[in-house]
Amino acid sequence: xxxxxxxxxxxxxxxTTALASKLDKVxxxxxxxxxxxxxxxxLGHIKMGPVAKNIEFNWIEDDLNAVVFSGHTLTSxxxxxxxxxxxxxxxxxxxxxxxxxxxxxxxxAGCNEMLLRVASVVNQSSxxxxxxxxxxxxxxxxxxxxxVVAQPYGDSSDASSDISKARSKRDNFTQIYxxxxxxxxxxxxxxxxAVTNELQLQIKYRTLEIKRELNISTILGIGYxxxxxxxxxxxxxxxxxxxLIQDPARTGTxxxxxxxxxxxxxLTVAYINALLYKMWDRGGLDETADPIIVVGANQQRVISSxxxxxxxxxxxxxxxxxxxxxxxxxxxxxxxxxxxxWMQADKLLILDRSRVSxxxxxxxxxxxxxxxxTGRSEKWQLSGQYGLELRxxxxxxxxxxxxx
Length: 404
Fold this sequence. Notes:
By secondary structure, the chain is an alpha+beta fold. Helix content is 18%, strand content 28%. The protein has 7 helices and 20 strands. Strand 14 (326-328) and strand 15 (334-339) form a beta hairpin.
């Protein structure tokens, strides 16, 4: 791999020959950070998060209470509820007495025009209701989405019960990335025009190799301990983005909440839009979201060919070929398209950049350490320990797999 420039090695606070000759341990984290920042593929879009305090690190995810549920009308005075949790009383959540509800996407005539007032909740599965305002009852026999329009509360009423949701905890592992450099006394003393500082050059090469390994692990890695929980003695790996989207709790069983299996079909605009709406329905793509599309070369070719048949080339135009670096969804979102060498050919990833970060283990960011000398050779070890944090993996990120 050709290296066009080594400028990132010489910025303030980074590696210098003087440091290498005086210290047994040199912090090279800014060297790695500069390489990641300059990366045009996936890693250039992932920020560095707070340091991890343990090799198995955690983060907390909070959720708002739902205001949408599925159901259908039984009679003019009752609604059958299907998908609220059975472990928590509906009265203690959003469907308390007095709540105003309405169909959201009913296909039955007149249903979307009516509003109902909840009188009481029975057995967490049925609502006793009455018509609200001057709306007219219509039968919603087919199950559809319902939405809580309002939860009016009386001036003289006591404070309602707390409805805070229990926090969920997600976790991942840090993974050690390591390379060694060994330089003989003879090589150290040779003055070559092409290479003025062999140690600095090898640090650059090994850092780029680590960036490549970090890139691959960030996409494809699976969290695993080799031999049990034995702290730093274990060769452990970190869960990557694709695995966390499919199985965010790392139970070994994929939930695939925001995953679409294309079944070997070709990628289309409709597939991407449908995945975005799936994320939208689960609460993703909110006002803080910063989504991108990540693909390999195979799917990039397909995206670049979208609408190719309706494009026109003007007479005298010298440029040939087609390329797309921005996808405009039919909900108005603009998603930059990121081409990554290590993204698998049959997959398309939608990643919310505001909810992903790399975390270094405290005191173990990318550094260079001098090893014991062997004969006439000096040996250095480059190493660091990093893990991936992916928040709201099953709602704010999406995956299309098994594409043609």
